[in-house]
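Hello,

I think I submitted the fe (ii) ion job twice by accident. Can you confirm which output corresponds to this input? Input:
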Amino acid sequence: MTSFEFNTTRSIINEPGSIKRLGEICTRLGFERPLVVTDPGIVKAGLLEKLTASLDASGTSYALYTDIVADPPVETIMATLEAAKAHNADGIIGFGGGSSMDAAKIAALLLRSDEKLEDIYGVGMAKGERAPLILIPTTAGTGSEVTAVAIVTTGPNTKAGVVANQLYPDVALLDAELTLGLPPIVTAATGVDAMVHAIEAYTSIHLKNPYSDMLAQKALELLSKNLKPVIADGSNLAARQNMLFGACLAGQAFANAPVAAVHALAYPLGARYHIAHGTSNALLLPHVLRFNAPNAASLYAELAPICFDNVPTGSDEKTALWFADQLEQLSLDVGLPPRMRDAGVLANDLDLLAEEAMGQTRLLKNNPREVTQSDARDIYEAAY
Ligand SMILES: NC(=O)c1ccc[n+]([C@@H]2O[C@H](COP(=O)([O-])OP(=O)(O)OC[C@H]3O[C@@H](n4cnc5c(N)ncnc54)[C@H](O)[C@@H]3O)[C@@H](O)[C@H]2O)c1
Ligand SMILES: [Fe+2]
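Support: Only one job matched these inputs. Its output is below.
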């Protein structure tokens, strides 16, 4: 028997076109004056009109904050909060990728509780209640709509996470019509990010549990089967909805069985070079899996046939290495850069990156194999 605790978003709506129901959902939750939080890319893609049409139809008195900066820095979070206060908002709607949703989550918390952002970084540090919150992802990647995490850029090369159960929204709305225009490179990076969430949840050593395993397996089935189809044809609505649902399942898995060394080593790439989060993960994924294989081969061997056909017969170790090779090929097939050098990383920085990765203790402690600074350096070297 396994003892565990499992938390997730209370209400998840998985339906193409469900953005039309947003007004009705606000009414159900008792929203009258929500702030809609999004970024300029979403506005440019013409997605905001779909959202405002639904709120207009229900007569909701919303205000818009459309200036979210990717990998939101502290100033962006504070500006979002100010916009919510200026509107006298009674709820928040986060609309976009992980950046917009994460900013919305923290704004909803700080709007209701009097805590200061600098006091709530870390696990369980936030104590107050949040305002009502709806999250609507427009990328199939972070799973932020079902995680208790929000990531903030705190300095030129640093990020910090707020982890608190209050950050689960009241409702997550998964409408793949919003993802039809997602550019191929964003589709690829965010899709691989979601796969990494599922893989790392499945091998997470402390909190892995039967629920997270089930979710990670189903997530990988959906994501691996639908990623190439959505790259080939971005307008494939059924495949897009499967990606969105897969990313959500992966989010539920890693919200309860946290991610590990792939993410720990990817973060310094994002912080230092502004490489997209999913791309950073894709660059490191096969190399971390090869490093982990001695300790996690049987688990990788369980995931291999879920993701890929024609798994070769042989030992778990052999299958695990084959799995890493297949994932590396998949990243290439969907157009992601092959090596860190192709993404602009400087060879002279590998020592520095290894030092920075060691700071990600919250993530490294979940890895199936202990990572020393010299191991991290070797993994970066292999990925370079
Ligand atoms: N909270 C969590 O659990 C969690 C997990 C992983 C990552 N993150 C964080 O999430 C952020 C990354 O999120 P992301 O990868 O979703 O990217 P993002 O939110 O930064 O968006 C990337 C770009 O894609 C554009 N875009 C998004 N949806 C679009 C659409 N449908 N059509 C056209 N353009 C669209 C945006 O305008 C933006 O320019 C990082 O800050 C990362 O640290 C959070
Ligand atoms: Fe991620």
